[in-house]
Design goal:
Chain lengths: 413, 95, 969
C-alpha cells in the first residue's frame, strides 16, 4: 500500500487541504478574464500563472468547474490525426497528458490502452494508411494492421461484424489512452488557484466591453470587471460570446451524445472506434463501457438525449461484440459540440485586440486540453499565436486555407 | 423520435428528414468583396435562438423552411420556400 | 441455511405455491415458488446475506426489493448483473453473487472493509502516481477490483423486433393514483395504456396498507373498473425507461422494447423510500420499511424476527402493525418526531403493545460477527437542533431495523419530460412547479401521500389529460390535498467511527461527503463526480435525496438552492439487445446481383450498394483475377455493372441553364444526342462530384453522378431549382435504371446484333448518346471512355437490366467477354490518368489542384463555386495532382495508396492511386505534389511501409493511348 494511504488512515483526521478557493468578492480589475472553467480555460490559467507569472486572472463559469464538455466526453487521448498540423499539435498534447499526473500532483488515471480505428472498406483503409504514414513521419506511433493482428490484440471482437460490414484492417495507435476527465479540470484548477488565479463558478458573462477594437472589460452576473484581455474557452457557448464582441465565425453547435453501461469486470483493454459503424467504445477503470457515436445531425443548443441515438449505437456495437446483448446501458448524456467546416479548431488572436479564442473543438476538444493550456498561455502572454496553433487561426476562413481534419476527426474520439 | 411537420406530407418522424442548414441568401455576387464572399461561404449565425433553416423530406423530395427554437428543439412552423417572399436571413429573437 | 421464513398463504400474495422452483445460490440448493424474485426466495430460505458491496465488500441483504438493491446482483452462467430483488427466480438456475473473490461467504476481498480508513474519498486521485511508472500496476489492481459482473463471450445476441405503439394517454405507474388516473382518462374516452415495472399492478396497495381496513378491497375495485374499460390496457413488467421529445416513451418489457407515442403522459410512479443514515445502516437486516413490507405482503416472507422500526411518518407505524399482525415481535418504534404520529395509528400501535420512543433516532446498528446481520440498535435522543445526544444511548436488541423516515418522488422521467420541480419545505420533497403541455403528475410524485387523496389526485390528473386532449371539459376538477408530510428533513446521523452509508451502490459514506465538501467539491454535480455518489447502477435513487440534504447543511443553504443532479435516461438500466432490436442493415443490390454471385464476385460496399470488386476464379490470386479482367477489356471485351451510379433526369425550358449553374462546364451548347463530362464543386470551390451529362432533347438532359453522391446531388439539385426559381423537373432515376458499361475493341461487334441503333463510329461517335433498344428492351447508349477503350454505357429499365446483361454476355461469348469489377476499372482508368473524385481528391481539393481546370468554363455568369474559385485562383496553387511512374524496370516493393512523398525529411505529397499496369507492365500512379515539383520529369521519393524510399518520376498522363484513339475506333 502506498505510503500516502497509510498516512491518511493513521492521521485520524482528514488532512487534505481545499482544492479550490471560492473568493468572496471579485476584484475591479484583472489582467485577464478567462471565460469557461473547463479543462481548456483552467489549463491556460495554470500555464499563464506558472510559465509567465501572470496571476491576476479571473476564471468565470456560469456553471461549475469542468461541468461542460470536460465532464461530458469519453475521456480519450490520442494523436493519430491526419494533417501534419493536427498531428504535431496532438502529439504535444499526448506528451503533456502523459506527464500531467506528476505535473499536477493528482492521479489522473492516465492509462495507455491502445486505440483501434477500424476500417470496413478499402476507402477507409486508405485513409488509415494516410494517417499512419503522417503519424510515423512525425514520430507518432501508428500503423495499419490486418484482421489477424486485430484479433490477437482484441480477441473478443467479431471481425465479420455480423456479416454486413467485415473489418478489413485498422489503424492501430498504441499510445491511445484514457484518463479521468473530471480530475484533469480539478488538477488544473487546484494548481492555478494555488498560484493566485481566482475561479468564480455560477458567474455568467453577460457582455464584453470593447473600445476602439480593444477589449476593456467584461460584464458579469456579479457585476462589471475591467480587463484588457479576455480568453473565451466555452466550447458550445462560443457563438454567444463571439456575438458579444461582434465576430462572425463558422461555429455551429451540434449535440454529441454518449452513454455508459453498468460496471463489468475488465475485458476490453483497448479503445475501439469505427467510423463506418459510427461507434467508439472503451472500458473505464470503473468497469463501465463508455460509448459514443456520431454527432446529432442538426444544430441544437441543448444537452438532451434521444432514443434514436442509443438504439443505433447499440445496434452497431452488438455487430462488433454480439455477446454484450445482456449487458445493460445505464445512463445517457450529451454535450454541445462547437463544429467547424474543416474539423480543425479555431485558436488564437482575433480581429479584436485582447480577445483570444479557443474554440472549434467539435467532438475532440478534451484530448487537446493540455496543449491548449501551454499554447493559449503563450498566445495570451505574448499577444502572438503560438507556432503550433498558427494554422488554426480564425483568419484561415477568409484566406481559404483550411486544415482538413475530417478524415481523422469524425467519430474518431 | 421527434415529429416534424412537412408542409406537403404533414407530421412525420424526424428521421425521414435531412437537415439543410441555416437559410442564407447568397450575397449579390459581382458586388460582394472577397471578404464578404468568404463570410457568406464559411461563417454562420451560430447563436441560440429562432432559426430559419432548410429541411428536406427525403421520401417525397420536399424542401421547405422550418422556423425552429434551436434551444428547446421545438419546430414553430414550416412552410414552402417562396422566392417572391423569402424568409428573413439570420437568427430571429428567441421566441 | 436456517429455517424457512415463509408464512402460510396470505391474502393477495404474488407467489404460486403450486409451482415450486428449485435453484442454487453459491452452490447451495434453494427453493422458492413461481412469482418469487430471487431475493425473496433466498430470504425466505433464511439467506440474509445476498451480496457484497462494491468497494469494501461488506455483506448486504434485502434493502428495497424495488430494483434498487444493486448489492444483490447475480450471475447465472449466461446472464450477468441480474437484479436479484426484482428478477423472477428461474427454475434450475445457478446463481452466484457478482464481484467476490472465492465466493460470497468467504470473499477474500472482505478484508477491504478493515482497510477502509486507508481508502478515503477520492483516495485514488492522491496516490499511485508517484512514480508514474508504477501506475500501470496499480491501475490493473484497481480495475480488477472494480466492475461487477463478468461478461460471457459466448452469449448469443437475442435479435428481437421492436414494437411501435401509440395511445392518447400513457399512465406510468399502476398504483392507486395511476390506476385512478387511467380509469378517469379512459372514462372520458381516451385510449389509455397504463404501465408498471412491477409484476402486478397495485403499487402501495400491494404492500403498504395491510393494516388499513379502509384499504382492503380497494385494489380489486380499481382493477375491476379498469377491466370494464375496453380502451384501457394495463401492462405490468413494463418499464418506462426514458422519456424523449414529443411524448416518445421507451417501454421495456422483458427483452423487448416498445416505442410508445402518446399524446399525453401522466407520471404516477410514486416515490422511492429513503434510508436513515447511521453507522452500519447497510448491513443485512437493515431494510427500508417498504422493502420489508414487500417481502411480507407480496411474497409472504418474514423479513425479521424482532425488528426495530425507525420512522418519521405514518408509513412506519403501518409497517409496525403489519409486522405485528403476523406475529412478529416489534422491538419498538423509534420516532424521530418529538410529538410522534398525529393520526390514530398511534393508538393502534400502542394497542398492539409496541413501545414508541419519541424524539429519538438510531445512532448505530450493532453488527453480528462477520457483519452478516445485526443484533441490536443504539438509540439516542434528538435535541431541538436535530442533533443526537450520543451520551444517552439506549441499546435495544433486535435482528433488523425497518427504516421509514422519508421518500423521494420517482420523478426522473418527469424531469426528462421538462417538468420543473421546486422544493417544498412543508413536505420536505421536490414537487412539480410547472409542467410542459400534455404532461401531468399524480400521487406521491406530486406530494400526495394519503390513500384517499391519491385516488382523487389520480382522477384529477386523468381528467386533466382528457381535457388537454379535448375529450372532456369538466367545469371543475377534483382537488387533492398534498401530504401528510412523510419525510424527515435530516434523518442523517454522523458517527465518528464512520460506516454510515449514503450510497450503497458505491459505498459512499457520510464522512466522504463531508471531506469532499471540505476539499472544495461544494456543488452537487462536483460532489457527485468526486465521491461517485449516484453514479452506481441505481443512479442514486436512494442516495441523491440524502446527499442533497447533507450538502445543503454543510453549505448552510436550502435543499432547493442546492438542487439535485440532472436526471437522464434510463430510469432503470436497459439490456442492449432490447435497444438494438433485430439489427437491420439494408444493402442495395443491382438487378445483376445474382449473376455476380454465381460468377464468383467478391463484393465491396459502395455506400449501401454491394458491387463486385472482382470476380474470383479458382486457383487464381486476387491480383491475377484483376489483371485478367483488365486484359479482357484491353484486348477483347469486358462488361461492368454501373447500375449504382446516380442517374438524374432534368427536363424543362431551364434545364440547360440549370446544369450550367450546377456544374462547372457548359451545357446549353451541348448537341442533342451528345454527352459531356460534368464536374461539380461546392460553394467553397471544392470538387465534390463528377459524371456525364447527356442531352436527350432540346429540354431534356440526363446526368450521372458517382455512386456515393447520388442521393446528395439529387437533393441539392432540387434545392437549387427552388432557390433559383427555375422552370424544370427533376427525376431521380437511380433505381429506375440498371446500367452496364460494355468496353473493349470488340464492344461494337458484341452490341450491334442486339440493337436497333447504328453503333458505328460514324453514326454514333465517341461522346454521343442514342436511344433505342437492346435485346428488345428500351435502352440509352452513351459512348463514354472512362476505361479508355471503345465503350458503350447502356442504361435500361431496372426490371429489364438482367435480361439485357445476359443477352450481352451471351453475345459476347464468341469474343471472350468477361465481366469486370471495380478493381479492374480502377486500374483501367488509372492507365488513362483519370482521377476518381474522393480517392484522388480529398475534402479540400479544388479543380486547379486536381488538374481539372479544363472542365471549368469561367465565362459563364454563374456556377456553384465560381466566385470562390476566382478568389482561390488569385493565389498560387500549392499542390497539383500528377501522374507518375516507377519505371518499367521496377520490381521492388510496391508503394501503396496514401504512402507519402518525402523530400529532405519533409512530407511534400501523397500517392492517391497506384497499380502495376498490366498493359504497360510498370507501376504507375497519381500523386499530390507541390506545384513547383509537378513538372513532367521531376524525380521524387515515396516512402513505403518499412521506411524504404522508392524513386518515382512525374510523367505525362495519360499513360495509355494518349490521343484517345482507342475510344474513337
Amino acid at each position: 500500500m502506498p505510503l500516502k494511504l497509510l498516512k491518511f488512515g493513521l492521521s485520524g483526521k482528514y488532512a487534505e487541504p481545499r482544492m479550490f478557493r471560492t473568493p468572496e468578492k471579485m476584484r475591479d480589475t484583472y489582467d485577464l478574464v478567462i471565460i469557461g472553467a473547463g479543462g481548456h480555460g483552467l489549463a491556460a490559467a495554470y500555464h499563464l500563472a506558472k510559465d509567465y507569472g501572470m496571476t491576476n486572472i479571473a476564471v468565470l463559469d456560469k456553471g461549475y468547474i469542468g461541468g461542460g464538455n470536460t465532464g461530458r466526453n469519453t475521456a480519450i487521448v490520442r494523436s493519430n490525426y491526419l494533417t501534419p498540423e493536427g498531428v504535431e499539435f496532438y502529439k504535444e498534447s499526448v506528451r503533456l497528458f502523459s506527464q500531467l499526473s506528476t505535473e499536477l500532483d493528482l492521479n489522473l488515471f492516465y492509462t495507455e490502452r491502445g486505440h483501434f480505428t477500424l476500417a470496413h472498406s478499402d476507402a477507409s483503409l486508405r485513409t488509415m494508411r494516410w494517417r499512419a504514414e503522417v503519424n510515423k513521419h512525425l514520430d507518432v506511433n501508428s500503423e495499419v494492421i490486418g484482421p489477424r493482428e486485430i484479433s490477437k490484440l482484441c480477441p473478443y471482437m467479431d471481425l465479420s461484424c455480423g456479416g454486413h460490414a467485415p473489418v478489413v484492417g485498422a489503424l492501430w495507435h498504441p499510445p491511445g489512452s484514457i484518463i479521468r476527465h473530471d480530475a484533469v479540470a480539478w488538477g488544473y484548477a487546484r494548481e492555478a488557484c494555488r498560484r493566485g488565479v481566482e475561479i468564480f463558478q455560477k458567474t455568467a458573462v453577460t457582455g464584453i466591453d470593447i473600445v476602439d477594437g480593444q477589449v476593456t472589460g467584461v460584464q458579469t452576473s456579479r457585476g462589471p470587471i475591467k480587463a484588457r484581455r479576455v480568453l473565451s474557452a466555452v466550447a458550445g457557448y462560443t457563438p454567444r460570446i463571439t456575438k458579444m464582441v461582434g465576430i462572425r465565425t463558422p461555429i455551429v453547435i451540434q449535440p454529441l451524445q454518449a452513454c455508459v453501461t453498468e460496471p463489468l469486470k475488465p475485458w476490453l483493454d483497448q479503445i475501439v472506434v469505427s467510423a463506418s459503424l459510427h461507434i467508439y467504445v472503451s472500458q473505464s477503470s470503473r468497469g463501465e463501457l463508455v460509448m459514443g457515436a456520431s454527432l446529432d445531425p442538426y444544430e441544437l443548443h441543448s444537452e438532451r438525449s434521444t432514443l434514436d441515438f442509443v438504439e443505433g449505437l447499440v445496434d452497431h456495437l452488438l455487430d462488433l461484440f454480439p455477446f454484450l446483448g445482456n449487458v445493460k446501458v445505464n445512463r445517457q448524456w450529451a454535450g454541445m459540440s462547437d463544429m467547424t467546416p474543416d474539423y480543425s479548431p479555431i485558436m488564437g488572436t482575433t480581429p479584436i485586440k485582447g480577445f483570444y479564442l479557443d474554440t472549434g473543438w467539435g467532438t475532440w476538444g478534451f484530448k487537446a486540453t493540455a496543449v491548449c493550456g501551454t499554447t493559449m498561455a503563450y498566445t495570451v502572454a505574448q499577444d502572438d499565436d503560438h507556432h503550433l496553433i498558427r494554422p488554426f487561426n480564425l483568419s484561415r476562413f477568409g484566406d481559404y486555407t483550411l486544415v482538413g481534419e475530417k478524415g481523422a476527426a469524425s467519430v474518431g474520439h | 423520435m421527434k415529429i416534424m411537420t412537412c408542409p406537403i406530407n404533414g407530421p412525420r418522424p424526424v428521421q425521414e428528414f435531412v437537415y439543410g442548414g441555416e437559410y442564407r441568401p447568397m450575397p449579390d455576387e459581382p458586388a460582394a468583396s472577397d471578404a464578404q464572399w468568404a463570410d457568406y461561404i464559411f461563417n454562420r449565425s451560430g447563436e441560440p435562438g429562432l432559426s430559419r433553416e432548410w429541411w428536406y423530406h427525403a421520401p417525397s423530395g420536399t424542401w421547405f423552411i422550418a422556423e425552429r427554437d434551436n434551444v428547446k428543439d421545438v419546430v414553430l412552423k414550416t412552410y414552402l420556400f417562396d422566392r417572391a417572399n423569402p424568409p428573413r436571413a439570420g437568427k430571429g429573437a428567441t421566441p | 441455511m436456517s429455517e424457512s421464513k415463509r408464512l402460510p398463504p396470505q391474502f393477495g400474495e404474488w407467489i404460486d405455491r403450486g409451482s415450486p422452483v428449485r435453484f442454487t445460490f453459491e452452490g447451495a440448493a434453494c427453493e422458492g415458488f413461481a412469482g418469487d424474485t430471487v431475493s425473496s426466495a433466498l430470504h425466505a430460505g433464511g439467506a440474509l446475506m445476498l451480496g457484497r458491496s462494491f468497494k469494501y465488500h461488506r455483506p448486504r441483504g434485502v434493502h428495497s426489493l424495488a430494483n434498487h438493491d444493486v448489492n444483490a446482483m447475480f450471475e447465472d452462467g449466461t446472464d450477468t448483473n441480474i437484479r436479484a430483488d426484482v428478477t423472477a427466480v428461474r427454475d434450475g438456475a445457478e446463481y452466484r453473487a457478482v464481484n467476490t473473490v472465492g465466493g460470497l461467504a468467504n470473499d477474500r476481498l472482505r478484508i477491504m472493509d478493515a482497510f477502509s480508513r486507508f481508502l478515503p474519498v477520492g483516495f485514488y486521485y492522491k496516490t499511485f502516481h508517484r512514480p508514474m511508472s508504477l501506475f500501470p500496476f496499480w491501475e490493473r489492481q484497481l480495475r480488477s477490483a472494480a466492475g461487477l459482473g463478468k461478461i460471457d463471450g459466448n452469449h448469443k445476441r437475442n435479435r428481437t423486433p421492436k414494437r411501435y405503439d401509440w395511445c392518447d394517454v400513457l399512465v406510468i405507474g399502476a398504483g392507486p393514483s395511476g390506476l385512478s388516473a387511467a380509469i378517469a382518462a379512459a372514462r372520458a374516452g381516451a385510449s389509455v395504456v397504463c404501465v408498471d415495472e412491477n409484476a402486478r399492478p397495485g403499487g402501495t396497495l400491494s404492500y403498504a396498507y395491510g393494516s388499513e381496513p379502509a384499504a382492503q378491497g380497494r385494489l380489486d375495485e380499481l382493477l375491476k373498473a379498469a377491466a370494464s374499460l375496453p380502451n384501457l390496457s394495463i401492462r405490468c413488467n413494463t418499464l418506462a425507461a426514458g422519456y424523449y421529445a414529443d411524448h416518445w416513451v421507451a417501454l421495456v418489457d422483458g427483452g423487448k422494447m416498445t416505442k410508445m407515442r402518446t399524446r399525453a403522459v401522466v407520471f404516477a410512479q410514486g416515490a422511492a423510500e429513503q434510508p436513515s443514515v447511521f453507522r452500519h445502516n447497510d448491513l443485512p437486516g437493515v431494510m427500508l420499511a417498504s422493502g420489508a413490507q414487500r417481502l411480507l405482503r407480496r411474497y409472504s416472507v418474514r423479513p425479521f424476527e424482532s425488528p426495530l422500526v425507525v420512522t418519521a411518518n405514518a408509513d412506519g407505524y403501518r409497517a409496525a402493525l403489519d409486522f405485528a399482525s403476523i406475529g412478529i415481535h416489534v422491538a419498538g418504534i423509534v420516532d424521530l418526531r418529538p410529538d410522534g404520529e398525529p393520526s390514530d395509528l398511534d393508538e393502534r400501535v400502542k394497542a398492539a403493545h409496541i413501545t414508541i420512543h419519541h424524539g429519538q433516532a438510531v445512532y448505530e446498528a450493532v453488527p453480528r460477527d462477520g457483519l452478516v446481520g445485526i443484533k441490536a440498535a443504539v438509540v439516542c435522543p434528538l435535541d431541538k437542533q436535530g442533533e443526537l445526544d450520543t451520551d444517552d444511548g439506549l441499546t435495544i436488541a433486535c435482528d433488523g431495523i425497518a427504516m421509514s423516515v422519508g421518500w423521494a418522488g420517482a420523478d426522473g422521467l418527469l424531469y426528462q419530460a421538462g417538468g420543473r420541480m421546486k422544493y417544498s419545505d412543508e413536505f420536505e420533497q421536490f414537487v412539480p412547479e410547472t409542467m410542459p403541455a400534455g404532461v401531468f403528475a399524480a400521487g406521491r410524485v406530486n406530494g400526495v401521500f394519503a390513500l384517499d387523496q391519491k385516488l382523487i389526485d389520480g382522477e384529477r390528473a386523468g381528467l386533466s389529460a382528457a381535457k388537454y386532449l379535448g375529450l372532456s371539459s369538466p367545469s371543475t376538477l377534483p382537488e387533492a390535498r398534498r401530504g401528510p408530510r412523510s419525510t424527515h428533513p435530516y434523518p442523517i446521523f454522523y458517527h465518528p467511527k464512520g460506516k454510515a452509508f449514503i450510497d450503497l451502490d458505491e459505498d459512499v459514506q457520510l464522512k466522504d461527503l463531508v471531506n469532499a465538501e471540505t476539499e472544495g467539491f461544494d456543488n452537487i454535480e462536483l460532489l457527485k463526480r468526486y465521491t461517485t455518489f449516484g453514479m452506481g447502477p441505481s443512479q442514486g435513487k436512494i442516495a441523491n435525496a440524502n446527499t442533497v440534504r447533507v450538502l445543503a447543511r454543510l453549505r448552510k443553504q436550502s435543499v432547493g438552492e442546492t438542487g439535485v443532479p440532472t436526471s437522464r435516461p434510463f430510469w432503470h438500466p436497459v439490456r442492449m439487445d432490447a435497444l438494438a432490436g433485430r439489427g437491420f442493415h439494408p444493402h442495395r443490390h443491382t438487378p445483376m446481383h445474382s449473376f455476380h454471385e454465381s460468377h464468383g464476385a467478391v463484393f465491396m460496399l459502395a455506400g449501401d450498394w454491394q458491387r463486385p470488386a472482382y470476380y474470383a476464379r479458382p486457383g487464381r490470386s486476387r491480383e491475377e483475377c484483376i489483371t485478367t479482367e483488365v486484359e479482357a477489356v484491353r484486348h477483347q471485351v469486358g462488361m461492368i455493372d454501373v447500375g449504382t451510379l446516380g442517374k438524374i433526369e432534368i427536363s424543362g425550358p431551364d434545364a440547360g441553364a440549370f446544369l450550367e449553374r450546377i456544374y462547372t462546364g457548359r451545357f446549353t451548347n451541348l448537341k442533342v444526342g451528345s454527352t459531356r463530362y460534368a464536374l461539380m464543386c461546392d460553394e467553397s470551390g471544392v470538387v465534390i462530384d463528377d459524371g456525364v451529362v447527356a442531352r436527350l432533347g432540346e429540354d431534356r438532359f440526363y446526368a450521372t453522378t458517382t455512386t456515393s453522391a447520388a442521393a446528395s446531388v439529387y437533393r441539392e439539385m432540387q434545392r437549387y431549382a427552388i432557390v433559383w426559381g427555375m422552370n424544370l423537373t427533376l427525376v431521380n432515376a437511380t433505381g429506375l435504371y440498371g446500367g452496364m458499361n460494355l468496353a473493349g475493341p470488340f464492344a461494337r461487334r458484341v452490341l450491334q446484333p442486339l440493337t436497333d441503333i447504328d453503333a458505328s463510329e460514324t453514326a454514333f461517335p465517341y461522346m454521343g448518346m442514342r436511344e433505342g433498344t437492346l435485346a428488345d428492351v428500351p435502352a440509352r447508349f452513351l459512348r463514354v471512355g472512362f476505361v479508355g477503350e471503345l465503350g458503350y454505357e447502356v442504361h435500361v429499365p431496372a426490371n429489364c437490366a438482367k435480361h439485357a446483361w445476359d443477352a450481352l454476355v451471351s453475345a459476347g461469348g464468341a469474343f471472350g467477354i468477361r465481366p469486370f469489377g471495380v478493381e479492374a476499372q480502377r486500374v483501367l482508368r488509372l492507365e488513362k490518368g483519370h482521377a476518381i473524385v474522393s480517392q484522388d481528391t480529398d475534402g479540400l481539393t479544388n479543380p486547379f489542384e486536381a488538374g481539372m481546370e479544363w472542365a471549368i468554363k469561367d465565362d459563364k455568369p454563374f456556377f456553384i463555386g465560381q466566385r470562390s474559385l476566382r478568389i482561390i485562383k488569385k493565389r498560387p496553387i500549392a499542390r497539383r495532382l500528377v501522374a507518375f511512374s516507377l519505371g518499367a524496370g521496377y520490381h521492388g516493393n510496391m508503394p501503396k495508396e496514401c504512402h507519402l512523398v518525402i523530400d529532405h525529411g519533409k512530407i511534400i505529397g501523397r500517392v492517391t492511386s497506384i497499380a502495376i499496369s498490366p498493359t504497360l507492365h510498370e507501376p504507375i500512379g497519381l500523386a499530390f505534389m507541390p506545384a513547383e515539383k509537378a513538372a513532367v520529369g521531376t524525380p521524387f521519393s515515396i516512402r513505403i511501409d518499412d521506411g524504404e524510399m522508392v524513386a518515382a518520376r512525374v510523367v505525362k498522363a495519360p499513360f495509355y493511348d494518349p490521343h484517345a484513339a482507342r475510344q474513337k475506333m
